[in-house]
Amino acid sequence: MNPKLQKIIDSLRVKGEKYKIDLIDLVRQNKNPELNQWLDEHLKYYGELIPHVFFMEMTCALRDIFIKDSSSKHTVSLVKEICEFMEGLLDLDDEYLENLVGVSFVESLDVDKPYYVLIRKYFKPKTLQSARDYEKSWGLNYDK
């Protein structure tokens, strides 16, 4: 894992409602222009962070960028960075964050669409396990 991200994650060991603030801080400290733009738009529209909605918006934006140009260095870098971000949240071993990543990221990628398998190859171990659990519920196995 990226040492910078690990340091941020290590500082977020508090559980519960505080994650609404910490998630904003984590996105801001990530300094990714797309993530920050998506967060700014979300905060402007809702006036607060609504984590599941933000993660679904982020996932849809990522999906659209990937569909438009899946082979560009920028797109691949963005996908890798977001997958690392998701894995970092799962590393916190928090049930709420596991649900957030599983439902609002993995499930929002539409398991039955062709781009899903292409994005899935960038998943880190815990995110991949979440994806496998979801795929199983659809009777799918992309590990074959």
Strand and helix map with partners:
Elements lengths: L2 H8 L8 H12 L2 H14 L4 H18 L4 H19 L3 H12 L7 H7 L4 H13 L7
Helix pairs in contact: 3-4, 4-6, 6-8
Structural features, described:
With 144 residues, the protein is an all-alpha fold. Helix 3 packs across helix 4, helix 4 packs parallel to helix 6 and helix 6 packs across helix 8. The longest helix has 19 residues.
Concise synopsis of the structure shown:
With about 140 residues, the chain is mainly alpha-helical. The chain has 8 helices and no strands.
On the 0 to 100 scale, the average pLDDT is 85
* Strand residue content: under 5%
What is the end-to-end distance? 26 Å
Tally of contiguous helical segments: 8
The chain-level structural class is: mainly alpha
What's the alpha carbon Rg, rounded to whole Å? 15 Å
Fill in the keyword field for this structure:
mainly alpha; 0% strand
